[in-house]
């Protein structure tokens, strides 16, 4: 019998956690420092699991950039009804 892949495998869960913790740490420490902390934590976890420093550096760079880009995608998507509910990005 053929098994179906889990849609929430480790990579997808890790990406979701980057966005969630990125938002929390961004609110606490500010945009740049919070995103840097997210990148450092993701890089450390990848280095611990993967065992290679290069893997940790690459994952940290990707997590940092994803977290920086996340601030440009406000909640509500492109729904014009929710434009008034979006927070202003300064």
Question: If you had to describe this structure to a student in words, what would you say it looks like?
Answer:
This protein has 3 helices and no strands. The protein has a domain at 28-70. Helix 1 packs across helix 3 (53-70) and helix 2 packs antiparallel against helix 3. The protein is an all-alpha fold.
Helix percent band = 55-70%
The Cα radius of gyration reads: 16 Å
* Shape descriptor: flat
How would you sum up the major sheet?
none
Beta content: under 5%
Outline the low-pLDDT stretches: none
- What's the count of strands? 0
Report the span from N to C terminus.
53 Å
Class of secondary structure makeup: mainly alpha
Short description, anyone?
This protein has 90 residues and is an all-alpha fold. The protein has a domain at 28-70.
Strand-helix topology:
Elements: H1 10-29, H2 31-50, H3 53-70
Helix pairs in contact: 1-2, 1-3, 2-3
Identify the notable features of this structure and list them briefly:
mainly alpha, flat, 64% helix, 0% strand, 90 residues
């Amino acid at each position: 019998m053929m098994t179906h892949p889990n849609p929430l495998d480790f990579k997808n869960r890790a990406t979701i956690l980057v966005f969630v913790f990125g938002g929390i740490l961004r609110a606490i420490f500010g945009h740049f420092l919070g995103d840097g902390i997210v990148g450092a934590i993701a890089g450390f976890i990848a280095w611990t699991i993967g065992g290679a420093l290069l893997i940790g550096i690459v994952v940290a760079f990707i997590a940092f950039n994803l977290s920086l880009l996340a601030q440009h995608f406000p909640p509500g998507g492109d729904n014009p009804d929710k434009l008034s509910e979006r927070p202003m990005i300064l």
